[in-house]
Amino acid sequence: MVPSRGTEDRKPIIAIVTDAIHPYSLGGREIRYHELSRYLVASADVNIYTMKWWNGPATRTEADVTFHAITGLLPFYRHGRRSVRQALRFALASLRLLWRPFDVLNVDHIPQFQLFTLRLVTWIRRKPLIATWHEVWGPEYWREYMGGIGGRIAWGIELMSMRMPDHVIAASHQTGQRLTELVPGLPVSISPNGIDLDGVNAAIPDPATTDLVIVTRLMAHKRIDMLLEAMALLRAEGRPVTCRIIGTGPEQESLHRIAHELGVADLVDFRHDVREQKEVYSLLKAGRVFPFPSNREGFGIAVLEALACGLHVITTTAPDNLAQHLVARAEHGTLCDHNARAFADAIDAALDRGKGGSAEPWLVEYSWPAIAGGILEVLLP
Question: Which UniProt keywords apply (predicted)?
Answer without folding.
Answer: Glycosyltransferase, Transferase
